[in-house]
Design a protein that fits this description.
- The structure is a single chain.
- With 190 residues, the chain is of the alpha/beta class.
- The protein folds into two domains: 116 residues, Beta-carbonic Anhydrase, Chain A (3-Layer(aba) Sandwich); 34 residues, no CATH class.
- The protein has seven helices and five strands.
- Strands 2-1-3-4-5 form a five-stranded mixed β-sheet, covered by helices on one side.
- The longest helix has 14 residues.
- Bound molecules: zinc ion (ZN).
Length: 190
């Protein structure tokens, strides 16, 4: 059965059985934090369980590689809004080992686009409009370095309140073990 049908069938039962009742919470994070992490499939339930969060505890922003690719893009906006409007008082940036964005083969991604119908003319037009497609798609070489780079992007953002701690973590997607890259409490400006 196609996925959407499965989802809708499950949802009907979910509502009928009132399975949502033990998940009811508010939009303000109980643990007063916002977490930026990767969209990796292994970090769905493992993520919250390994960190000890339950529904309602933390705001979660996810993208490919837990990366802030633009200082005025949607990821940075989400972090700023979480801090200034939605009750978050700390930021956690968490990369993970074995990330699909680590050493991503951009040429291969572009070849796949071409094989699926994106023309060279389209790619050339995008390049001529000033967008470097290689740079747009590129991931990172080292997850620890990527976490540090993103911490610095937030910390040095002109709209960031430097009294907000930014923690840097790397999680092992196999067993949930955490490595601390930065303890944000040691870097806040009072
Ligand atoms: Zn990842």
């Amino acid at each position: 059965m196609p996925l959407l049908n499965d989802i809708l069938e499950h949802n009907t039962a979910f509502i009928e059985n009132k399975d949502y009742q033990n998940l009811i919470t508010t939009k303000t994070p109980n643990e007063k934090a916002v977490l930026l992490t990767c969209m990796d499939t292994r970090l769905t339930e493992l993520l919250t369980r390994a960190l000890g969060f339950k529904n309602g505890d933390v705001k979660v922003v996810k993208n490919a590689g837990a990366t802030i690719s633009h200082p005025y893009g949607s990821t940075m906006r989400s972090l700023l809004v979480a801090i200034y409007a939605l009750g978050a008082e700390e930021i956690i940036i968490m990369g993970h080992k074995d990330c699909g964005m680590g050493n991503l083969d951009v040429d291969s991604v572009i070849d796949t686009m071409k094989n699926r119908g994106v023309s060279q003319l389209t790619l050339d037009t995008i390049e001529h409009s000033g967008i470097d497609i290689q740079r747009f798609l590129r991931g990172f070489d080292d997850v620890t370095e990527n976490v540090r780079t993103n911490i610095n992007k937030v910390y040095n953002h002109p709209l960031f309140d430097k009294s907000v701690p930014i923690h840097g973590l790397v999680i092992d997607p196999h067993n949930g073990a955490l490595e601390v890259i930065q303890n944000g409490y040691e870097h806040i400006k009072q």
